[in-house]
Amino acid sequence: MSDAALPPSARTPGVVPHRFRAPTDEAPVARLILILLSVLGMGTLVLAPLATVFAEALSRGIGAAIESLSDPQAWSAIRLTLLVAVIAVPLNAVFGLAAAWVITKFDFHGKAFLITLIDLPFSISPVVAGLCIVLTFGANSLIGGWLVAHGLPIVFALPGIVLATMFVTFPFVARELIPVMIEQGRAEEEAALTLGASGWRVFRTVTLPNIRWALLYGVLLCNARAMGEFGAVAVVSGKIRGQTATVPITIEMLYNEYLSVAAFSMAALLALLGLVTLLIKTSLEIRHADA
């Protein structure tokens, strides 16, 4: 009688029946198929479009690409994109940290609803978000009309672009922090408070060191998304050249005007910024794994 037919108590110790195998012990053919499908998907969806962008940008030589990037309107778009990221990302870092702190450190009614609100930008179109900002702060609205009358326009100006960017990128920091802070619990903070530490000192010496990697990941993802946002910004910016046109919007306008080298050169620049962000994130993950 084989071991597989014997009851568990009568089987030979250390011998695993042939019909049982580890979950990852796949046949070589299955492994090969899965690897090929993964490589094919990555190549089709990521690598091929990325290679096309750089190839089109350099189709007339690197000199033409650099010349298109030195255009005043291109520089204006680059400066505006960086300025929006510099404003929106730190604010979202603060708001995301505050939201994660409230959700993980306190028990209150409506916590599930607050978590749902944090995920709201993931579930609605950025275009809808931009339209809501226009309807709320546009010149024809009550609030927007008063702001325009006092020389503080929101829509078709820098504040509207920042608001749209912050709305779209808000969940990234909070969503990176919440699982980490839930896993860590409250024991260390409560022990520090029991020993007489102030709230700020507890945050600075206990909480922040434990969440610093998750916070950095969230900030990097938020920054990458902020620089590449198109839908919501396209609605609230008005696409004014040299004033409210960010890099993604400028890319669309140049492409629609058949200025392919200029459009793909700016797209390549935006892709390079994204790749740099990815490299920084990977470096931080390696340091975190070694720590």
Q: How helical, in percent, are the residues? A: over 70%
Shape: globular
Q: In percent terms, what proportion of residues is strand? A: under 5%
Mean pLDDT level:
86
- Give me the strand/helix succession: HHHHHHHHHHHH
Q: How would a crystallographer describe the biggest sheet?
A: none
Tally of DSSP helical segments: 12
Rg over CA atoms, rounded to whole Å, is: 26 Å
- Low confidence ranges: none
Span of the ends, CA to CA: 52 Å
Structural class: mainly alpha
Quick one: how many beta strands?
Answer: 0
Walk me through what this model shows:
There is one protein chain. The chain has helices at 28-57, 62-69, 72-105, 111-123, 126-137, 142-149, 158-184, 187-194, 199-228, 231-237, 247-256, 260-290. With 291 residues, it is mainly α. The longest helix is centred in the first third of the chain and has 34 residues, at 72-105. The model has no long low-confidence stretch (mean pLDDT 86).
Sequence-ordered SSE layout with sheet pairings:
Elements: H1 28-57, H2 62-69, H3 72-105, H4 111-123, H5 126-137, H6 142-149, H7 158-184, H8 187-194, H9 199-228, H10 231-237, H11 247-256, H12 260-290
Helix pairs in contact: 1-12, 2-12, 3-7, 3-9, 4-7, 5-7, 5-10, 7-9, 7-10, 8-9, 9-12, 11-12
Please describe the structure with a list of short key phrases separated by commas or semicolons:
mainly alpha; 75% helix; 0% strand; 291 residues
In short:
The chain has helices at residues 28-57, 62-69, 72-105, 111-123, 126-137, 142-149, 158-184, 187-194, 199-228, 231-237, 247-256, 260-290. It has 291 residues and is an all-alpha fold.
